[in-house]
TrEMBL record:
<dbReference type="InterPro" id="IPR045087">
    <property type="entry name" value="Cu-oxidase_fam"/>
</dbReference>
<feature type="domain" description="Plastocyanin-like">
    <location>
        <begin position="211"/>
        <end position="344"/>
    </location>
</feature>
<dbReference type="InterPro" id="IPR008972">
    <property type="entry name" value="Cupredoxin"/>
</dbReference>
<dbReference type="GO" id="GO:0005507">
    <property type="term" value="F:copper ion binding"/>
</dbReference>
<dbReference type="InterPro" id="IPR001117">
    <property type="entry name" value="Cu-oxidase_2nd"/>
</dbReference>
<keyword id="KW-0439">Lignin degradation</keyword>
<keyword id="KW-0052">Apoplast</keyword>
<dbReference type="InterPro" id="IPR002355">
    <property type="entry name" value="Cu_oxidase_Cu_BS"/>
</dbReference>
<dbReference type="GO" id="GO:0052716">
    <property type="term" value="F:hydroquinone:oxygen oxidoreductase activity"/>
</dbReference>
<dbReference type="InterPro" id="IPR033138">
    <property type="entry name" value="Cu_oxidase_CS"/>
</dbReference>
<keyword id="KW-0964">Secreted</keyword>
<dbReference type="InterPro" id="IPR034285">
    <property type="entry name" value="CuRO_2_LCC"/>
</dbReference>
<dbReference type="Pfam" id="PF07731">
    <property type="entry name" value="Cu-oxidase_2"/>
</dbReference>
<keyword id="KW-0479">Metal-binding</keyword>
<dbReference type="Pfam" id="PF00394">
    <property type="entry name" value="Cu-oxidase"/>
</dbReference>
<comment type="similarity">
    <text>Belongs to the multicopper oxidase family.</text>
</comment>
<dbReference type="InterPro" id="IPR034289">
    <property type="entry name" value="CuRO_3_LCC"/>
</dbReference>
Length: 362
């Protein structure tokens, strides 16, 4: 239902408890979400159940989903449902408007809706409290022995502009530069004529390489004052090869190159457990003590904290070429991605299915 002003109306009866599936469909902006005067009981995220917890505020990165229960236990009236930006990147322009819908009780008087308070645009404390409330419903089978221990830096960078580019395509903070992004100093380039999966399956050479580094090529103070010599990544179509059934841990480390930022990192083809997150540089000698190996949440997108890190674990049991990338749409275009190439196992059930005969060519 839509009112005369074009605002969506969500009807509800007093005493009802309804399930709301919240999806951040914005391309380039994490969002806070709330409903005036109502508690939100989180029961799931990214299509996985969670141990329920109650909150006033959700924060979702682009592409993330959260399932909440809401009980109509307030006086019959009209209440704004509101969302606005969480902006962690300093000095970066963003849309600071607030989008709204209206939760309208049956038989309520048509008065001005009640507006909820929203966090400050850069309120990382609210985001941290929210993300650290996530747990699985029960003890889960998170890998405890690791075959592949990977460390991926993520962040922005700068490239020199080609001489034939117009100024509007060169909007870096330094004259003559344009933004780029990378993982482990490799700025991912999509192939032009054939997909990576097709090239892998048909053993077509020259489309990609399998030399994506397991660790940063150069170690540095990732969240400190980074040398300008590290601002320009190397372009490439590089994948990292995983054996079928390998138990994988990936540390995702934000960097302060150009600006630190909360990056929603999504992995195709898999759910994974988020076993820990924190701020600063990940320290394996200290931070492993923070790992939750009992009931960590299962998700397919992890919001890596601004100027911080997150650790995920999964079993590589789905063969194929799976892109891991930032869900900020502009960042994947700049190259903040890589491909995990999971090899076939034994037999038909552990192998990539052959393409259909009518598969369209790239």
């Amino acid at each position: 239902m839509i009112d005369n002003a074009g605002t969506t109306i969500i009807p509800i009866q007093s005493g009802e408890t309804n399930l709301i599936r919240v999806i951040n469909a914005a391309l380039n902006q994490p969002l806070f979400f709330t409903i005036a005067n109502h508690k939100l009981t989180v029961v799931g995220a990214d299509a996985s159940y969670l141990k329920p917890f109650t909150t006033n505020i959700l924060m979702l990165g682009p592409g993330q989903t959260t399932d909440v229960l809401i009980t109509a236990n307030q006086p019959p009236s009209r209440y704004y449902i509101a969302a606005r930006a969480y902006q962690s990147a300093q000095n970066a322009p963003f849309d600071n408007t607030t989008t709204t819908a209206i939760l309208q009780y049956h038989n309520s008087i048509k008065t001005k809706p009640i507006m909820p308070p929203l966090p400050a645009y850069n309120d990382t404390n609210v985001v941290t409290k929210f993300s650290r409330s996530f747990f699985s419903q029960r003890k889960v089978e998170v890998p405890t022995e690791i075959d592949e221990n990977l460390f991926f830096t993520i962040g922005l960078g700068l490239n020199n502009c080609p001489k034939n580019f117009r100024k509007r395509r060169c909007q870096g903070p330094i004259n003559g530069t344009r933004f780029t992004a990378s993982m482990n100093n490799v700025s991912f380039t999509l192939p032009n004529n054939i997909s990576i999966l097709q090239a892998h399956y048909d053993r077509i050479p020259g489309v990609f390489t399998t030399d994506f580094p397991a660790n940063p090529p150069v170690k540095f103070d990732y969240t400190g004052n980074v040398s300008r010599s590290l601002w320009q990544p190397t372009p490439g179509t590089k994948a990292y090869k995983l054996k079928f059934g390998s138990r994988v841990q990936i540390v995702l480390q934000d960097t302060s190159i150009i600006t630190p930022e909360n990056h929603p990192i999504h992995l195709h083809g898999y759910d994974f457990y988020i076993v820990a997150e924190g701020f600063g540089n990940f320290n394996p000698n200290k931070d492993t003590s923070k790992f939750n190996l009992v009931d960590p949440p299962m998700r397919n997108t992890v919001a890596v904290p601004v100027n911080g890190w997150a650790v995920i674990r999964f079993v590589a049991d789905n063969p194929g070429a799976w892109i891991m990338h930032c869900h900020l749409d502009v960042h994947i275009g700049w190259g903040l991605a890589t491909v995990l190439l999971v090899e076939d196992g034994v037999g038909e059930l552990q192998s990539i299915e052959p393409p259909p005969l009518d598969l369209p060519l790239c």
